[in-house]
Design a protein that fits this description.
Layout: H1 2-12, H2 20-27, H3 33-59, H4 67-92, H5 100-134, H6 141-180
Helix pairs in contact: 3-4, 4-5, 5-6
Length: about 180
């Protein structure tokens, strides 16, 4: 009975007609507002990480650091770039599944996994960056305090990133619950 009422309400909604050109324009990656924002963020991050990788060896004395510190740093930065690209591809991909509920559940599962890997990736990149810079440093009291401040700042950033992802996951879960009626 609820489905009949829903169908009747759906049929009764007056929607302005859209031409096939308008619909194609909406669905294109370049004009989709969410994908556009993600693409902009991804581009800025990739340019920033790539720029850092191009200059870190000369600007930050990579030649004076141990080889393993250089390898860890480059690996972490490349992993963040690859992870961001995978996230963009995930959001770019169309809806999959036989029905809306199944599609939402699939997207929700992928989103939770991506969020967890995103936070862990950022933590690992921060740790590798920190390790690179302190790998040959001689510590005194002032530098220990500076290190504490840096660790606290990274902790705050990771906390903010985690809260952002938890909010996204909560909103997705609420939408799924609203959809399934529970």
């Amino acid at each position: 009975m609820e489905n009949d009422a829903l169908k009747s309400a759906w049929r009764g909604v007056d929607t302005p007609p859209k031409s096939s050109t308008e619909l194609k324009s909406i669905m294109q990656e370049r004009t989709h507002p969410v994908l556009k924002g993600i693409r902009r963020q991804l581009t800025i991050e990739i340019v920033g990480f790539t720029g850092f990788l191009l200059v870190y060896y000369d600007f930050f004395d990579g030649d004076r650091k141990p080889a393993y510190a250089n390898v860890l740093l480059v690996s972490a930065m490349l992993f963040v770039i690859i992870h961001n690209s995978m996230g963009y591809m995930l959001t770019k991909r169309g809806i999959e599944g036989n029905n809306i509920k199944q599609s939402l559940e699939d997207r929700f599962s992928k989103m939770k996994t991506y969020a967890m890997v995103s936070v862990v990736t950022r933590m690992a990149a921060a740790a590798c960056l920190w390790f690179f810079f302190v790998s040959v440093m001689k510590f005194d009291t002032g530098r220990y305090w500076m290190l504490v401040v840096v660790v606290l700042l990274v902790g705050v950033q990771i906390g903010i990133l985690s809260r952002i992802w938890m909010g996204r996951i909560r909103r997705m879960k609420e939408a799924m619950d609203d959809f399934s009626g529970g």
